[in-house]
Write a structure and sequence with these properties.
single chain; alpha+beta; ten-stranded antiparallel beta sheet; three-stranded antiparallel beta sheet
Length: 505
């Protein structure tokens, strides 16, 4: 090997050795980092708390109870006093047979009804009689108001809400009782009307609350025109007696009532049925005749239950239903309620079932059948357990030889002193224990998963370290081989140098 070649070879080996040493240093640094990571993982394992299952004893306690007739009492707190007595608190529970409880519901059918045919009434507002209606609304005019309302009623005698009679003239006459003026089909002095159309509208109103409202309003307007006295056998007069002397507050009041009534025609209302029974508003029987005091004198509807009741029973039922509203409001909050009565097949008694209007309105209904698709909560009068808490009662307790309390005297030393035998019970709060056990199972699963994750990380770290260790051994072997070869090259270089010096010596 020539001198130059040997030196080049030596330099190449030196570079290789340097690279091997550098790589070895990097591997040692990586192994140190892995060692630190592994130590952290083990520290995490040491720092983890092992979940402990709950003990039933932690959720079990001794309870003292005593009974007072139908009342069951359970002592919740005992605080010893300096005079040997105790200050106790206890819960008192009893069975309430007149409580509101949930009950299985049925499919509710929602139907949409209108109080009057809107198309017919639009013809009235925009047709021949529209002028009379417009005059009545724009300027208060009792005669025109009465004229407008009369167009909506068929001829005949009516009873107002306060029990008065009112005769409605189908055609009417002027003040001289000579010319028919209202609902005529031929021209005459005064406004004309379409009798056929008016009869159709009237037929839509028969038996509705709107019809009664029209009768009452018409009667009030007639009183305004006549100065307070209504002669139901005579038509409305013309001239100065058209309500010009009516106080403005009275005009505004009646005008608002008429406007509201007119605007309500044709507005859709949701009616709810279960089976063939129509739900009605709780606390008010609409289909009934009443006296001047608002008391029911006659039921005019066709409800199977209400039809069996006398007038006195109907009034009593309304009072009872208003008490139900109070009970429902206290338990379920404010809002309107509806009711239907079902006859008990065993006892024969009619039992009320209550539905919250908000629940009925917000339910989902099928388009084709109008039947409810979502569940609608129903309530009835039933039995429930009622519990009250009594606090801060002075009591004396008697123990047996084992230290167990056997008797309790409430209000000792007073006129209200009374003694009861105590019953000892060991009660486990099963719900609380189950909750704790569920929490333990969750914590244990979380713990096991964390242990598994850390062990996996440690295993990966150890595998990486093993690979680095093998690589380091390979580098050691490679470095030994390079050192051996460098020694050989070094000897060749030395021989070459020695030979060169001998040639020139």
């Amino acid at each position: 090997m020539g001198m130059a070649a040997s030196q080049a070879r030596f330099l190449g080996l030196t570079a290789r050795k340097t690279n091997v040493e550098y790589e070895g240093q990097q591997i040692n640094q990586q192994r140190t980092t892995l060692s630190n990571q592994s130590a952290n993982y083990y520290n995490q394992l040491l720092g983890m708390s092992v979940p402990v299952p709950p003990s039933v004893e932690d959720y079990t306690k001794t309870v003292y109870t005593f009974t007072d007739g139908a009342l069951s009492n359970c002592i919740t707190s005992l605080i010893a006093q300096g005079d040997g007595n105790y200050l106790i608190s206890y819960t008192r529970s009893y069975q309430d047979d007149n409580s509101i409880v949930s009950t299985p519901s049925h499919v509710v059918t929602r139907l949409t009804e209108t109080p009057i045919n809107r198309e017919l009434y639009e013809q009235f507002l925009t047709g021949t009689n529209g002028g009379c209606y417009t005059t009545a609304i724009q300027n208060y005019d009792a005669a025109h108001f009465a004229h407008t309302l009369t167009h909506m009623l068929v001829a005949g005698d009516y009873t107002t809400s306060d029990g008065n009679k009112l005769t409605v003239f189908p055609f009417g006459m002027d003040k001289n009782y000579t010319n028919s003026r209202w609902w005529t089909t031929t021209a005459s002095s005064g406004s004309n009307g379409n009798k056929v159309l008016m009869d159709k509208i009237s037929a839509q109103l028969v038996g509705t609350p709107e019809q009664q409202e029209i009768v009452d309003l018409l009667y009030e307007f007639l009183k305004d025109v006549s100065g307070g006295t209504v002669d139901a056998t005579k038509p409305i007069l013309d001239g100065a007696e058209r309500g010009n002397n009516v106080p403005q507050a009275r005009k505004d009041y009646l005008k608002n009532r008429v406007t509201k009534l007119i605007n309500s025609f044709g507005n859709e209302a949701d009616i709810y049925y279960i089976g063939g029974t129509k739900l009605r508003s709780l606390g008010k029987i609409e289909e009934a005749e009443r006296d001047e005091n608002g008391l029911i004198t006659k039921y005019t509807g066709n409800d199977a239950y209400l039809s069996t009741l006398s007038a006195a029973q109907l009034n009593e039922l309304e009072n009872e239903e208003n008490e139900y509203i109070t009970m429902l409001t206290q338990k379920f909050g404010g809002g309107a309620w509806m009711v239907r009565y079902i006859q008990n097949t065993t006892s024969g008694a009619w039992e009320p079932y209550f539905y919250k209007v908000n629940d009925l309105e917000n339910a989902i209904y099928k388009d084709t059948t109008s039947g409810s698709l979502s569940y609608i909560e129903a309530y009835k009068i039933g039995t429930s357990r009622t519990t009250n808490e009594i606090k801060g009662t002075t009591a004396k307790l008697e123990q047996d030889t084992s230290g167990r309390y056997i008797n309790i005297t409430l209000n000792p030393g007073t006129e209200d002193e009374v003694t009861y035998a105590l019953t000892t019970e060991t009660i486990t709060d099963q719900d609380a224990y189950n909750d704790a056990m569920n929490q333990y199972e969750y914590d244990k699963t979380t713990y096991d998963k964390a242990i598994e994750d850390i062990n996996n990380k440690i295993e990966i770290t150890q595998l990486e370290d093993k690979n680095l260790e093998l690589r380091l051994k390979q580098l050691d072997t490679e470095q030994d081989a390079i050192s051996t070869e460098m020694d050989a090259v070094q000897r060749v270089i030395e021989k070459n140098v020695e030979s060169t010096f001998k040639i020139f010596g």
